[in-house]
Structures are given as C-alpha cells and as structure tokens.
Amino acid sequence: xxxxYLNLVLHAHLPYVRHPEREDRIEERWLFEALTxxxxxxxxxxxxxxxxxxxxxxxxxLSPPLISMLADELLQxxxxxxxxxxxxxxxSEQTRTADDPARHGxxxxxxxxxxxxxxxxxxxxxxxxPAFAKLHQAGKLELITSAATHxxxxxxxxxxxxxxQIATAVDVFYTHIGVRPKGLxxxxxxxxxxxxxxxxxxxxxxxxxxxxxxxxxxPAPLFGTFAPVMTPTGLAAFARDEESSRQVxxxxxxxxxxxxxxxxxxxxxxxxxxxxxQPFAHKEGIRLNTGIKxxxxxxxxxxKALYDFRLAREKAATHAGNFLFNRTQQVAYAKSRMGxxxxxxxxYDAELFGHWWYEGPIFLDMLFRKMHYxxxxxxxxxxxxxxxxxxxxxxxxxxxxxxGRDGYGDVWLQGDNDWIYPALHDCEVQMTRLADTHVxxxxxxxxxxxxxxxxxxLAQSSDFAFIMDSKTTVNYAIERTKQHVNRFRHLCSMLDxxxxxxxxxxxxxxxxxxxxxxxxxxxxxxxxxxxxxxxxHVVRVLLLSWEFRPMTVGGLARHVYDLSRHLIxxxxxxxxxxxxxxxxxxxxxxxxxxxxRVRAAQPDGGEFIHFVLQLNLAMLSRCRQMIEDEGxxxxxxxxxxxxxxxxxxxxxxxxxxxxxxTIHATEHGRNHGISTDVQRHIHHIEWRLTYEASEVIVCxxxxxxxLMDVFALPxxxxxxxxxxxxxxxxxxxxxxxxxxxxxxxxxIVLFIGRLVREKGVHVLLDAAPDILRDxxxxxxVIVGQGPMQQALRDQSRQLGLGHCVEFWGFVDDDTRNDLLxxxxxxxxxxxxxxxxxxxxxxxxxGVPVVASDVGGLSDIVCHEHNGLKAYVSDPxxxxxxxxxxxxxxxxxxxxxxxxxxxxxxxxxxxxxxHTVYVYGCVVPKASAPEAPTA
Length: 934
What we know:
By secondary structure, the chain is an alpha/beta fold. 46% of the residues lie in helices and 11% in strands. Residues 8-388 form the Glycoside hydrolase family 57 N-terminal domain.
C-alpha cells in the first residue's frame, strides 16, 4: 500500500563560461568537472535503471546556460581534449605508483571510470542533451528549466526584463528538448510575486520555494510542506522539506560527511609535484583539481586513510536504505493527519551528486532500486503527476523567500556586490527604451538589439553576485559583470548614434553566441512581445505543398505529412492545400490535419511549368474561398518549395498574412548552375519566395550556406531545422513480406530514391563490377522511378549487370520497409542532396548506410561513427566503402547501433517544436485566434 511520495528534484546549473579567445581559462573546467563527475554519472545511473526496468521518477532542472554549453561544439571538443589529458594522467599515475598496489589500483579504477564517461559522451556525439530527452520521453525524468541566465529575479527591476528571462528560457528549452517545460526552477528558489504573470504566460504549472516560502504563506498551509499550495494566479508552489535536506546537505550530520566517503579536498593536483601532473597541469603552474583523489574523509584529522571504492559503495547502499526508511516514516505520519497521500519535496543542486559527494549517484541508484525491488510504501513521483492527482489544493499568498543564507537575499545584495544593481537597472531601462523605439529595424540593427539583450541577460547572472559573496573567483566575477555591462552600453551607444559598427557586433556575437533565437522585443514595456511558443491560443497554419500523401513523388510528401501531424501535437491547427489524387476526397481530415485538394488540368504537351501555373491558380482560388467564404483566419502561411511560390506570395500580399518558406532544394543546386530559360524561371520564383518570406527554413547547414550564396539571404533570416524520421512508419504490416525467393539469401545493396541524375545511381552502377569481384553474390536493388530510369537500365546492360541489378520502380510503404529490413547495405551516392531523409529511414530500419560526402548527407552521416562516407561521383571510393560493410558484419552492427541512437537528433516532436518557434517570430499574440470551443 502506498503511503506517500518522494518528489526528488535536482537543479543542474552552471554560469555561462565560454572563452573562444583562449583555451586555458580554468573557469571552463567547471563544466568539464561537472560533466565527468555529475551529469554523465547521473545519466549512466538513470539509463541503467531504465534498461533494468526499474521504475523511478526524478525532476531535473536544466538551466539555459547549461543547455547552451552542453550543445556547444567548441566546448565539446575542448572537453574531449581535457579527458584525453586526464586519462593520460591516469596512465602516468599507474606507472608512478607501480610499487604501491593500493594507489596503483585506485589510479587504474579512475582510468576505467573516465573511459566509461568518454564512451557515454561519444555515444551521443558529444551532445548529451538527447540522453536527458530520452529519459523525459520515457516518463522517468521530468525535465524543467530555470531563468535564462539564472538571474536573481526579485532584484530585477522591470517586468519586461523578467519577461525576457522567462521567455528566453522557455525558448532554449523548447529548441533543445522539444517539449514545453511544465515547471520552472526559480533561481536560488527566490520567489517574487512579479514572476507569476510571465510563468503563466509561458504555460508553467509549478515552481519551488524554500520551506518558509510556503509555511509563512497566508493563510497558513494546512498540510505544511507535504502538499503544494496554489497561488492566486493558479500556479503550484512546492516547498523544500527540511528533514530530507538536512540528511543530505548538512555539513554536521549529512551523509556526504561519512568517514568512508571520498575526501573532496585531497586531490593529486595539489598533493603531487608539478612534474608528475603532466600533461594535465596548467601551463602557468596554477594548481587545479584533477578528480583523482586517493583518500577518504577518515575523520577530523590531517591523517587520511586511502579511499576504498567497494567500502564507499556499501556505505552508499546503507545510507540509501536509511533515507528510504526515514522518508517512509515521514509520509506515514503525515498521511494519518492529512486524509490524502503526502509528498516529500527534496530539492538539491545536481552538482552535489558526484562532484561534491562523489558517491551521490550511487546513493540515488541504490535508493530507486530499493524502492522498486523492496515494493516499499514510498513511491517516487514528479510534480506534474502529483498535481494531476488532486484538484483542491489550498489557495495561499506567498511572500518573498529564497534558499540562500538565512532564507532571504543578502547573499546577492551586500557590501561586496551591491554596486552591480544600479548598473543593471539602468541597462534594463535602456533596453526597454530601445525595444520600444525600434519597431521595424534593419537586419543589422536587429542583430545589434539582440546582442544587447544577450549582454544584459548575461550580466544579470546571479552567479557573479554569489561568487563575490563567497570570496572564490571574485576577480573573474567582477570582470565578467563589467564586460557585459560595458559591451551592452557600447551597443546602445551605437544604436542611439545610428552608427553601428558591424565588426564590433560580429565580434560580440562570436564571443557570446548564447541564445541564437533571442528576441529583443521580449523587453518591450507594453507587455505584448512576440509569442515564442504559443501556449494559450491555437496557431492556425495554412500549409502549401504540391505533394502530400498518398501522392508521393519525392521526400517532400513525407516531410509535409510528418510535420503537419506533429504540428497538431504542438497545439496548432493545420490546413494543407495540395494536389488532387484520384480516389481521395477533395477535403478530409487526416490524423487531425485538414487536407484540401485542388485539381489542376494538365495542359496539352505535358509541360510541367504550365501545370505548376495551373496548380497555383487552383490553390489561390481554394485559399480565397477558405478565407473569404468559410471565414478562416490564418496566422501564418507555410510554403514548401517553389512549386507553390506564386500562390504563397500573392496570399501574403493580398491578406497580409505572415509568410514562412521552407526551401528543400534549389534549381541552382540541382543543376550546378543556371543555364536554360526554364531554370531561370524556377530560380526567379525561388528567389522571390525567399525574399517575400519573413523567415526561411532549410533542412541542413549545407542548404543554409547555399541560400546565403545563391540568393544573398542574411543568415539571421534562415533557420536550420532538419528533417525527421518516424520509426513507426517504417514497420512492416504484419503478414506482409517480400517473397524470400526474390533474394535467395544474397546480400542486398539497396538504393531508394528518385531516378534523376543528382541522386547518383549511375555512380553506384559504375561501382558494381568492382564490388562483385569481391562479393560475387551481391544483388543491387534500385527502388524508385524518374526520367533516368531507361538510361540506367541501358547502363546496367552495357556493364553486364543484368543478372544482379533489379529495378523495382515505385513500391508501397510495406514493401519499402521490408526491403530496408532485409538489406545488407543502403547506398545514397548523391551528387547533390539538400538533406537525404531516406538515409534516416535506412538508419531507423537498422541497415548500415554508405552516403556521398555531400550536402545534407554530411550532416547526417559521420564517417565510421554512424555510417560510411564516399567521395562524390567516385565509383572507386563508393565501392570501397560498400565492400567494407559487406565483408565486416561487426562494423555493420556497430555503425547501425550508433546510427539508431543518433536518431534522437531527428525526432519529429523537436522538429515541430522548433517550427512553432519560427511561427512565433512572425505571429503577434494580439492577432492570434482564440482556441476553438467544444
């Protein structure tokens, strides 16, 4: 019988530290140490619990600065170098301690653990955010966020600046995690009633306070801290439980002080001579922690006993049992007086677990395993789950409170740091003035305003005031605060003089590239800034695409189908206008998407340009009917490629509806230049579409650069949002199976795609003879249709490949899926490829991939990590890579396994969420329609 719940909350945060100008800033090691000792060990524990089917719940707050640093390639690469040096130091230590078995064994164990950390890190290609997201999607980890730069919100002067902190935070979280945060960790648990409007606006359901933040509320809470209270605006406030905190946090009687645990303050970085610390030592001779610590706490003495990993693990298990017993006693006592199931809220800094308390991750692992296997009366729960259990929480008004010294705010405002607030408050006022003044800025002015917003928010970080109070790296905190304030003032001065120095702005952006989607308008005083993530209303989207399932010519139909139905999950109302298909209704609802089909008469001669003109006229007529006769009010037009460019631009101009364009490929790229009148006609439509669009979406960094070069588009107008893959659509229908005799156990080399020159099938056929010399049983299956089909058949015959090359033409989804699951290798030898969604589908089906090192395929396939790459238009290179996979099953399995793990980067939920963010760039809240009533 369940007596109550444990609401375990971990707050993961570090200040934004990134110094591209030099690699030896010791402050960057804050992130590296936390990755090695806290974030990755916690992920290893949580994923281990998930793999073992252990039921558990944890709430984890990922602050926007931490999210930004974890996703930063520069910091990822520096971490790799850091760990390589650390592992080399372990090897050196094993040599040094060869005659000391105890220390030698400790050094060897540290090396093993560091190597496991690196292996986990590389499993996710250096970005561990998807590892968190996977746990969130599994329902085990409820991810939430904090304010943009962890500003101490009660000391922020203006409501607009509070709004900017919350709006930016939600955007960063949404962009990287792909879902809206349900809760928000108020920095330093500092509650101020002014935050509630912004939290409500962005769909936040709950936050956390220190104990007295709730116990001192009016009226006094009937259930103390064993249940949340509801504020007058409808937000839930969970209060910290003092008893559970004391058992973990207390320096006197908390678990981390046990004598068998590792001594944090004895590190070989300070114990050993400098020459023994190479190559890890700092080049200026600064002493640093290495994470290699040979001693346990032992007692209040300078003499320390050697650390024992096994003994410490046993003690962590004992403490986990004690913690579980005490919490069970707590909830049993509370339940007898509440008449409902109580919840114990136990919040901690995540970095306590592993970094400060080395055995902390083991403690959590043991705690959840004991709860699961012992069938205890205490269960873990997330705040959202607990809020869903009851609908009659007590209403209360909260007062200002923090979890800082003495429960209030003197840590962040006292004699050593009070000088920062007059400067910050002046910057807030200036930022709002500029945001209100610049209504229609030029591209450069918008960049300058956005960078000013970044600098102000970075200066507001509570970490700098905290460091000044704690007397640690004080000079660094002062330096950073002054740098951001001064840079902000210089940017403002340039704007006021109407004389912006583009080189200064560019340098500032490169030094602090945090928050790429920041919007200066969030600082506007009228409290009607742009909606980053529409939560309180439905965004109605008019989506234009010439193809949509079941009409499938290329990857566009699949893309629009997947995107539209996932936009529905994000709360949008989507209307797709597309081409009619015989046997399908002109208007229907497909998985919540409104599909409107129009028929365009194919003119005599079958010229495609004429068909496109007819299609655009028919689409225009249907859209006008929907708007003028049927009363639809669309918030945004989303046009896909040039074939709907004319109707998209006309609708935008006539009705004033904001236009978003997704460019999947360009005529210039397909033909390696523009040389005919038809190509010039298509090229002009593409240019006009990108010009008229307020924002442009592309699927790869390759396409970003192509549009910037070909159409001279400013980079800030273009958003890179990859294509995605839905594994469910790749499952073969039960009972459907391509006949076995079609293959006779011969290894299949599979190509799927349109038969046009840019797909490079002719290169694969040229490579086939060399492949057959080494693997004579290979069979090449070509799936797809297109204008090159006959030429490719002729090429196959000329090369004498008729016995082993099969052209299957167009196949249904089940046949395609079955072929993917049977294939030994999937090959995509494209000459031009904006993205290559079929490569994702192959990866999702478990077949190893060989692809040309070109375009978007280069974004998807990482050579010898999740697939193999071949040189473009090089049959010998292609043959070499295909033969490697046909002859090495271990390599094939390894690449396939990693590829499937990497697919988390291409999850349609994240893609749809990012697309909704782009909509929010152009959809003002005031014009958004009301949510439809039942």
